[in-house]
Every structure is written in structure tokens, then in C-alpha cells.
């Protein structure tokens, strides 16, 4: 089972590595980081580089596609090479997934029309422009499309998917192995839970925190 | 404020990238991935590579040290270059931190003697051999040493530290920006919560899931 995780300039690292760390533990998984060019791909802050081991066209038919988000997503919205690859890969895939603003790339490729989907809470409204139906849930499954909300939500998305593919018992083993028993020191992780003033502040100047 | 994240062969990717994604958002943070040699460093499964942008000796006095764990930690326990660097860096640091079996490297460097500390639940007992006092908590702070339990716990550790350094309001902004509102599909993320049979299975054959 081949899992392709797409990298592009200025992606958000946890969007890619969170799902990776869960999905790579699916029995029979072969995980491949792909990019337009092979080699190091810098993240949204420029101080982290993950290596794309293969070009997109070397991995044309993965079983699972994972598209992270990040500030760099904007520049990719008109990247025909990437959008074409997403369409081709999706035609072969069993599961097509995204984290954060990665769903906007799936949407721009025309894959989410009429589908329920999610994204980073600050980007959620943008999905509708592509004919998707935005929902504020953390993990949204519609057919073979599994989209996750912002950054850290890819972990929940991927663990959910491990359960669908390999069964609940295996997914629980992955959860225990990665000691995924989250205990955030605050309860401000969604716009419904954070102080309203903080939500407004991020809405007004979101780049400071997203970048 | 310089944050050094240590990479070594066969580290666990989320151990490093989870804390990174939180800590890099501390005001004034400059994050540097360091390794014995600069260049790509492969993780525990060999299918992910993060780039070490600097050699250890190029970053002798970081403000924060982050040591991930992973199966590769075992081979590092007698790596004098790394252990020497940990001691030197710790002498200058404001915070010295670890995730998962990274705490065993801090312990091997002699830094956790008489300190309360944690590690991956399967490795917890090993801490005592180095004079540390193992505790099963997810995030343990003892003086300037902040150790986290397995893999995913580095996110909680780092967000806790962001709060200590930059204040609760900023840490909540980071939590909201990264939409860290975890909703695991199962409740099996610690040996106290997972089915006993599963805990026994991982104890018996832990390599299958940790590797």
C-alpha cells in the first residue's frame, strides 16, 4: 500500500509529519514523500527542510494521497503540474486526504465539488468557492475524501484512517505506540473554545501565527 | 532565542516536528536543526529525511535544546560527540528538553541525575539506571529540564514551554493557530487507558510498533 505525501515550498511541517507518523504504521505501508523536484523542500518558516525522495510523476498511482497545507498553498493553487498530478493520483487512489489548507488544493483540482470537507478554521469559507460544502468538524470523511482541519488535526485524521484500513485494534496499537494521549495545557484549540478576543485577533492578523 | 533540535539516524520524526511546530512560534525564536553531520538525516523507518542545517559544534550554546527519541537512540548512548555536545549545550541553555527516549540521551549525558523525568512508557524504567526518578506523567518539569513521554507528547511539552516563556495568552494563540484541539478516535494512548491485552502485546514485542 503506497502512501504519497506531497511537499511544496512553504508547507507546514506538522501537517505532513503528523499524518505520516500514524499512517506509516499501517501494515504493508510504503510511504513516499513526493515533490515537483526531488530534494529538500523548505517549510513555511524556512528553517525546516523535509526531503522529497521522488518526483510527482514517479509516483502516479498511490493508494493514499496526503496533501498538507501551509502558507505556500496559495502559490500552488495555479500550479498546473501539481493540480494535474492530484487529479491523476486521485483517479487511482483508495483514499485522498488533506490537512489544513491542503483541502483548498484538492478543491482547486476540482476534486471536492459537492463534497463535505474541512480546512484550517481561518480558511474554511474559501472551500465554498470551489463547490465544496465546508464543515467545521475536525475530521471530515465524504466517500474516499478525508479532510482535516488545521495543522495538528492531521494526526486525528490519519489515526481515523488507520482504523478504517487496518481495524480498530491496530489503530489502538498505533495510538499506544505513539503515546497519543493528548493533554494540552490550555483549551483554546478551536474558535469555539478559545477566548473570543483571541479568535478576533487571529482573524484580523492571521499571518503572524500561521506563518 | 535559539532553539536547537537534535537529529540522529533513526530518530522518530514526530518527536522532533511536534515540538518544532509549537516552539518555532515563540516570539524571537530562531530554530536550528543540528546533527553530527549536516545534511539529510533518515528517521526510524528510513522513508523520511529531515535536513540538519548545522553541525552540532556550530551551535554550541542554544537557549533551548530539544532531543527527540526513536529506535536510533540506543546507538547514540555511547556517542561521545553527541553526549559531550549535550553537556556543553546544557551548560548554556535556559531549557533542556526531550521527547520519548530522548530523555535517555540526556540521562546518559549525566544531566538527569536526581531529577524527575519521563520517557516513552516502554522505556520509562531505563531512566532509573542513570539516577533519574521516572514518573509516568506526560510532561515533567524539574528545574530547567522538561521531558515528555512518547512521540506525540512533545506537542504538549512544547506548548507548555511556550506558555512558560511567552505567557499563557501567546501559547493559546499558538494552540488556536495550529488548531490543537485533539480529538483522537480512540482512548488508548497510554498504558493506563489502553486494553490490558494490548499493553501486554506491546510490552512483549514493542519493536514492531516503535520501529
TrEMBL record, chains A, B:
Identification of the protein by name: DJ-1/PfpI family protein
Keywords: Lyase
Gene Ontology MF: a single term: lyase activity
DJ-1/PfpI domain ranges (all copies): 2-162
One Pfam family here: DJ-1_PfpI
Record EC number: 4.2.1.-
Biological source species: Streptomyces cathayae
Domain of life: Bacteria
